[in-house]
Structure prediction request, 824 residues.
Amino acid sequence: MSHDHSLNPETMPHNPEKATLEGKNKFLGLWFFLGGETVLFASLFGTYLALKNSTAGGPSSEELFGLELVFIMTMLLLTSSLTSVYAMYHMKNNDFKKMQLWLGITGLLGLAFLSLEIYEFYHYIHDYGFTFRSSAFGSAFYTLVGFHGGHVLFGLCWLTAIMVRNAKRGLNLYNAPKFNTFSLYWHFIDVVWVFIFTVVYLMGKVG
Amino acid sequence: MSNAATQNKGFAAVLWDYLTTVDHKKIGKLYLYAGGLFFLLGGLEAMIIRIQLIKPENNFISAGLYNEMITMHGTTMIFLAAMPLLLGLMNAIMPLQIGARDVAFPFLNSLGFWMFLFGGIMLNVSWFTGGAPDSGWTAYAPLSTQSPGHGVDYYVMGLQLSGAGTLMGGINFLVTIVNMRAPGMTYMRMPLFTWTTFVVSILILFAFPALTVGLFLLMFDRMFGAAFFDVALGGNSIIWQHLFWIFGHPEVYILILPAFGLFSDIFSTFSKKRLFGYTAMVFATILIAFLGFMVWAHHMFTVGMGPVANSIFAIATMAIAVPTGIKIFNWLLTLWGGSITINSAMLWSLGFIPSFTLGGMTGVMVAAAVADYQYHDTYFVVAHFHYVIVGGVVFGILAGLHYWWPKIFGRILHEGMGKLTFWTFFIGFHLTFFIQHFLGLMGMPRRYWVFLEDQGLDTGNLISTIGAFFMAFGVIVFLINAIYTAVKGEKAPADPWDGRTLEWAISSPPPHYNFKQLPLVRGLDPLWIEKMEGKGKMTPAEPLGDIHMPNGSIIPFVMSLGFFIASFGFIYQTNYDIAYIFLFGGMAIGLGSMLVRSLKDDHGYHITKEELEREAD
Prediction:
């Protein structure tokens, strides 16, 4: 068993992220983790659906939500999922610089999404007095969307950490699984947002 | 890192070794020690409850303290005793049964343990800081949101920590079983205990996040002024009940299925027969797990969900009796015609069958939604769930401990004391809980501090309390047995029970790398196959070579400590601003540890071929 995990184009395995047992374990483990996360968000969605009309005299979802902003946010996050696919494509071709570039773009898109979400929350609180404490609807809304936002924030910190850590040494069989699991996680965050966009915003506006 | 170096060490070195260990066998032991300690605490709480109920209108403890006792007894026994003891057995044994050198994520395994332990400590700190949680182990809102003081806050944070630890354990076992089975160990050759570990891990994975969300909602309501359960602001307290039981019902299968698995292994070993209906046993396990997710609302028949919902959940619940019945008959048929050895492990297993069947029968009774209006919140239900949890899970844990003690600790438990433990505990158990069925049918409600004189409840409660003392006596004998065995118990050979599965193919206790060479598995009960063909030991599946091992780490301990400190910050930020220091400081330690773990490369180390050759078999 070799102690040197670094890659060069000649010895490059087809899927560097799954070439070692540790890599395979991380890959499968993250999939299972996402299974648990699905139940976590399903529980939050269930709670939100039960409480979305409990406005306690405050503004309703029709009055609050504006689809323009949320549409832009959706596009940003969907695009960031695509750019992370590009990054993984370059990882499999052992092109570290291009992988870092696309991961960087992914991070910036995620950051833009998060900034718009913070602006959105600020807007509701400041202009409508719609807060976490004002009604059961408020608690459920900020909890569901906030949990997703928290996942985006965690993903951004994670991405920054592994990009900075590996910036100088390039790709190897030890860090390839780390980039790959991040990308899987990022797709999951994106899928959850698609459901939030549909269930919270579209159904809240017209449902 | 050789074995000789680990033998003559001072206390500090041993302590450091256990704080940093990532070895599944040592983590298994830690789970057993901690789970055992919490089991004693939970038992003490049970004794206090029974002493309070020994006679009508007793004044042994106050009403408020009684509420704390019942809450902490339930919470401790479920989350801090039964689950960790089972996780300990899984950790210690499952990797050996599939012929693996360790679990898939040794670091995560250690983190899971420390998160559980700090969660358990968190819960019990509440005794000393103004009162334990007092709204029942189910913490129904709005009782839990309105409960004064910080008791319920400790419940929320303690369970959140230990729940996160359990979730990590579940993911770890799943990946281990999928990716790390020895050559030839196909799914349908895995021992039943490994199978149930696998299925239970799936249950943990899909059930615990519902509790996580429930606890977050309760935390937000209590500590940050949210309105999930506040009816005045449009909240709905039934949401808690749904989330709690979407977790809570699978949780009872999380507890019982590993016991089913280890009973299957024990019956097969001590009857000297292949498990009867192996395939049916596997599919019955999966079916129980699947149905276990469809029945949560049978805890809520009296909430007012309406006749349609009640009927659906009632029928789904009764359906679980079918795969469970398949299991009971398969155990009986494994015994049938076998060459049976009766020892302590086998006594617990034989005692389990009638005890658990009684609990299963009352289970079908309470599943009948219409009749449940009569049983709900009475001692009938208390009797029912103690029959399945004590008669199933605790008997299972004790059977497993007697069976695997030699493998885990390298010494055999004393048979005489083992039998004395069984008989006193078994008799005490039925004395305590059988009479409670009738107390319940006569109308004694659960969770009441006192009962009145001359209502037909006096004798029953007295008998129940006497039974509890028998159980306590049995537990004390077991403790003495454990200490006696540690000091002068008989040294265990590799295979003391003439076993059938892979864990008996290596020494007791196993070397830290488990298998020098991974074994080649040629069928179900692989060791037995080799014995029957006259070889008596496993054929290696690989030449002797370097073994890759993970490094120990203190990070899991520090990370858990960080979140533990932060939990105090969350609880007390409602009173004191200074608590924010703990909140942010603790989170910084916890998240900082995660960052360190991510940034610092950890390639593990290798035990070389030469070192392995020097060590005797």
Remarks:
- Chain A has one domain: 20-206.
- Chain A touches chain B at residues 1, 3, 5, 21, 24-25, 28-29, 32-33, 35-37, 39-40, 43-44, 46-47, 50-51, 53-56, 132-140, 143, 158, 161-162, 165, 174, 178 (CB under 8 Å).
